[in-house]
Amino acid sequence: MAGGEIRFPGIIGFDDTVLPQVERALLAGHDIVFLGERGQGKTRLIRTLVGLLDEWTPVVAGCEINDHPYAPVCARCRLLLAELGDDTPVAWKHRSERFGEKLATPDTSVGDLIGDVDPVKVAQGRTLGDPETVHYGLIPRTNRGIFSVNELPDLAERIQVSLLNVLEERDIQVRGYILRLPLDLFLIASANPEDYTNRGRIITPLKDRFGAEVRTHYPLRLDDELALIRQEAVLDWKGSPLGAPAVPEHLLEVVARFTRLVRDAPQVDRRSGVSARLSVAAAETVAASAVRRAALTGEDVPTARVVDLAAIIPAVRGKIEFDQLEEGREDEILAHLLRRAIAETFRARLAGTDLTGLQRRFETEGPVETGDLVPAAELLRRVGPVPGLAAILAKLDVDGAEAPGLAAAGLELAMEGLHLNRRLAKEELPGRTVYGT
Q1: Quick check: 34 and 73 in contact, CB under 8 A?
Q2: In a 3-state reduction of DSSP, which class is residue 58?
Q3: Dmax over Cα atoms in the chain, in whole Å?
Q4: Is the pTM of this model over 0.85?
């Protein structure tokens, strides 16, 4: 922190809210439970904490629980140290090996997390009273590291009880064995706030033992939503013979605004949340639509346009939980929200731009047909010279002379914006869109 280094790489939108709480908890040595709806980056944030560990750490070679060479806690390593002293073999573990996680499922057992008697070791001749017959679970095997339990409320309450000693006394209990293993462990859990009380619950003694409860959230600002899309969406299409599709910035903004409108829509179940994966999937679908057009029509550079946005609706429908009263109207609601997102982007990007030249072109020369299989060059040919087009493209930071696809994308946004502001008519047919007066 004092050196100004990036502490949580890839985490967007939490700088002033979540991350200060996480830093205080880490400095205080507190275990953390993250609460937040799906797709808020809880798991991503948890995994970045590994980068705060020392890059390499010494352990007693062959130790199942990563004992420190100077302070071993398991019976095997104590005997080994007493016998060999400074000749005790030492191995080095990279920080990536010091992280463990378990998705809590109803069938998770105490043996999975803490440990159990290993019948194979008993069959080899060891007595049941020998501590070396214990097979350690995931948590002690992550000793001197970080362990994460995802979706903690899904863990059966009787299994949650097994974590009480881990969080407070820092030791474990395995059946009838008297084991005092002072674990050096940072335990993190994640949960959905609704799961906290409904689908399952975190038992009260366990909640009390977590030192910090941190609430996550969706991006609060449009800029953060856009940054998240740019970071997570796969738009480079490496290895594609058509090259990477161009997705203009104003289309990514439409996707970001659409996601935020869906989250705020009264018809959508707020308790379920609308994951950031929706905007990522939407951006990738728009890019895929552009690649499909280029493959079928021979376009040189796949470039996404407004006509590709309609493909978003079927792609993201399954990521949204609607109110039961809205059953059967899902596509209609999403189409309305998408139009609102386009209108907001149009106003934000082209406010104050003179579009009378474009509107006059429709009044004098008639309608223009576009569609998801109409190449950019063909659309520009159909529209023809438009007074003020250069100013439109300049407001969108597009150089139409160098990139016809981007020019067509800017032109389509202007035409759709005029339609949404009731200055152009629009007729939608299967695979075709006709703008006119």
Answers
A1: no
A2: strand
A3: 97
A4: yes
The secondary structure of residue 268, as a DSSP letter, is B
Question: For residue 245, what is the DSSP state?
Answer: P
- Decide: 227 and 12 in contact? Cβ < 8 Å: yes
Residues 6+ apart with CB under 8 A from 85: none
Question: Rounded to 5 degrees, what angle do the CA atoms 426, 427, 433 make?
Answer: 90
Written as one string, the DSSP assignment of 109-143 is -HHHHTEEE-HHHHHTT--TT-GGGEEE-HHHHTT
Q: pLDDT per residue over 370-398, tens digit each? A: 999 999 999 999 999 988 888 888 888 87
Structure tokens belonging to residue 429: 């047919």
Residue (of 53, 162, 60) closest to 102 by Cα position: 162
Cα separation, 408 vs 290, whole angstroms: 12
Count Cα atoms within 13 angstroms, Cβ side, for 315: 20
| Residue 321 Ramachandran class (φ > 0 left, ψ -120 to 50 alpha, else beta) | beta
User: Over 90: is that where the pLDDT of 223 sits?
Assistant: yes
Cα–Cα distance measured from residue 337 to residue 222, given in angstroms and rounded to the nearest whole number: 16
**Mean pLDDT across the stretch 306-333?**
89
C-beta of residue 181 within 8 angstroms of C-beta of residue 172: yes
Residues 53/146, Cβ–Cβ less than 8 Å: yes
Which amino acid, 426?
A: K
End-to-end Cα spacing for the chain: 60
d(CA 267, CA 330): 9
Cα–Cα distance for residue pair 418/425, rounded to 1 Å: 9
DSSP characters for 336-384?
A: HHHHHHHHHHHHHHHTT---HHHHHHHHHH--EEE-TTS-HHHHHHHH-
Structural domains of the chain, with CATH: 18-215 (3.40.50.300), 222-436 (no CATH)
Q: Are 269 and 322 in contact (CB under 8 A)?
A: yes
DSSP 401: T
The span from the CA of 425 to the CA of 434, in Å, is 8
